[in-house]
Design a protein that fits this description.
The protein has 219 residues and is of the alpha+beta class. It has five helices and eight strands, in the order H-H-E-E-E-E-E-H-E-E-E-H-H. It folds into two domains: 96 residues, no CATH class; 99 residues, Beta Barrel (Elongation Factor Tu (Ef-tu), domain 3). It has an eight-stranded mixed beta sheet with strand order 1-8-4-5-6-7-3-2, with no helix packed on it.
């Protein structure tokens, strides 16, 4: 669906569920809500389906082995620029070298609660072909071990295209334009259902809220 079609479909769903007449949500508010729920939907979808075959349905958002740009080096880690469209980590591989021998290692991402303590219990190892990485302040940090890091590659889910609608002025004073979603139409519908649910919440209509929630649960 185009963004205009999404906007029209939203009003059909909203008015039907809430039993209201002539309720109009502004274009700017709709765009804001849709783009916010879009990222929430993707996060939930990846979490629910990461270990199932359904994850292949969003492979169009998967970037594989993108070479990262080196930003800085110190005694603890090499710092690389995080891609602008990064959304969810998949894996990280580095090409490393030791004594003239070159191999690839897998960098396991450390959990936030383990930051600063993992290196005491898990040291990056050339022999075991294992490393450790972290994401902080728009950087990918790859910890150094008994080797030199020559290059690092990141696989990740990227952010979907955010929609927009022509006909309103943005906060920064610029004029909006029509930008369509790059998601499969069935996923656009799932995101739209979430937007309807959120607006129902705002209107505090219990019956409409339940109808919209049922539609999301049954997807």
């Amino acid at each position: 669906m185009t963004s205009q079609e999404l906007y029209y479909e939203f009003h059909l769903l909203f008015n039907k569920n809430a039993s209201y007449q002539n309720i109009d949500v502004s274009k700017g508010n709709f765009v804001h809500l849709y783009n916010r729920e879009l990222l929430r939907w993707l996060s939930d979808y990846i979490l629910r389906n990461n270990s199932t075959q359904k994850i292949h349905d969003v492979q169009g958002l998967l970037t594989v082995n993108e070479k990262l740009e080196l930003s800085n080096r110190n005694d603890r880690y090499d710092s690389f620029e995080l891609p602008e469209q990064f959304f969810e980590f998949v894996d990280c591989i580095s090409e490393v070298e030791k004594g003239g021998c070159k191999i690839k290692i897998i960098n396991y991402i450390e959990k936030p609660k383990d930051a600063l303590i993992n290196l005491d219990t898990f040291a990056p190892s050339f022999n075991f072909e294992e490393g450790l990485c972290n994401i902080s302040k728009e950087k990918v940090l790859v910890y150094v071990g008994d080797f030199k890091i020559n290059a690092t590659y990141l696989s990740y889910y990227q952010k979907p295209t955010k929609i927009d609608l022509a006909g309103y002025e943005k906060i920064d004073g610029s004029l909006s334009s029509n930008i369509n979603s790059d998601l499969d139409e069935r996923f656009q519908g799932e995101v739209l259902d979430r937007v309807v649910l959120e607006v129902m919440r705002q209107f505090e209509n219990g019956n409409g809220h339940k109808l919209s929630q049922d539609r999301i649960i049954n997807k």
